[in-house]
Amino acid sequence: MGPRLTGFQIEGYRSIRKLRLPVGHLSVLVGRNGVGKTNLYRALELTAAAARGTITREIAGEGGIESVLWAGPRQRGKPVRLKFGAELGDLTYTVEIGLPTKTEAAISLTEPLVKEEELVFTAGRPVTLMKRRGPSVWLRDGESKRHAFEHTLLASETALATFQDAAMFAELDAVRRALADWRFFHNFRTDAGSPIRRPPLAVTTPTLASDGSDMAAALATRMVIDERVEIDAAIADAFPGASLDVAVEGGRVMLSMTIPDMPRPLAATEVSDGTLAYLCLVAALASYRLPGFIALNEPETSLHPDLIRPLARLIGRAAERTPVWCVTHAPDLADALEVEAGARPWVVCKQDGATWLEGLKLTGAFADDDDEG
């Protein structure tokens, strides 16, 4: 596992003017509709997209940069930019996205372009390891020698995704791998035509895909290759007396669930939407190899209220293995996570029209943290 996410920065994205948030083993964000919870979640997704080189394409898919820019007052004379940053221990990566100038190559006047990137080693005296402006970038190798690459990058590309020489630029490669390993889970499809209901290929699957399509394979991997105690416990906690079984037929994983008082086991095509969603969450949070960071957006969606406490316990166990970031609209889940996992919820609010968190200081620390220290 690569460097762990310890904080992130967002500036100029939708309802977020500028903020920095710490990230612990389990971060829980709760708030009413319209305060910007999903914007925080989506900003993390875009940060991870920089590692895949798709950040500008994803912003274009949201309607373009003009659709996602902070709409409130801006500092006069300052370029209009989106800025995302990830703090991974002693390494901080930032990327800035803006609109084309007259001298930049773009296929439209509204195409989102990567303007700047930077990777800094922050322990002690800060040392810049990578600096990108426009199409040019320089990187520092393991011997502190600078390597310049002039007019190398297209404005839709990130240096983070482009330079993948682990031997020469080890820190950049570690950050890229760490961000690319993050997983985001939001609203698993549970309709009759969902790929989650179809048997996936019988291929060892250590980590659940973000769309949940390989759910049965991920559960089978943990149950067959490793051990099934945690998965059995998660099922029994949510559905007393029930059990989960997997089998391989025709090169595909067949999932079945035995429920008390039912005459036969139910296949994935037959279980309820809420049950299927919970099984996906079990696969996401109890798979063989958890990703380096998990973000959940309203995981309580489609779940019966009786499943909230079991879900909180499931999330708490996952947070013992990897950092988990949970955005929820449900005070019941936030309260359960505090009781079951000891995670004090952060309340997302609006301050002067911008998304903020109650108790958050401009430094990115919470007032309660100072009081407890």
From TrEMBL:
<dbReference type="InterPro" id="IPR014555">
    <property type="entry name" value="RecF-like"/>
</dbReference>
<dbReference type="GO" id="GO:0016887">
    <property type="term" value="F:ATP hydrolysis activity"/>
</dbReference>
<feature type="domain" description="ATPase AAA-type core">
    <location>
        <begin position="256"/>
        <end position="333"/>
    </location>
</feature>
<protein>
    <submittedName>
        <fullName>Predicted ATPase</fullName>
    </submittedName>
</protein>
<dbReference type="GO" id="GO:0000731">
    <property type="term" value="P:DNA synthesis involved in DNA repair"/>
</dbReference>
<dbReference type="Pfam" id="PF13304">
    <property type="entry name" value="AAA_21"/>
</dbReference>
<dbReference type="InterPro" id="IPR027417">
    <property type="entry name" value="P-loop_NTPase"/>
</dbReference>
<dbReference type="GO" id="GO:0006302">
    <property type="term" value="P:double-strand break repair"/>
</dbReference>
<dbReference type="GO" id="GO:0005524">
    <property type="term" value="F:ATP binding"/>
</dbReference>
<dbReference type="InterPro" id="IPR003959">
    <property type="entry name" value="ATPase_AAA_core"/>
</dbReference>
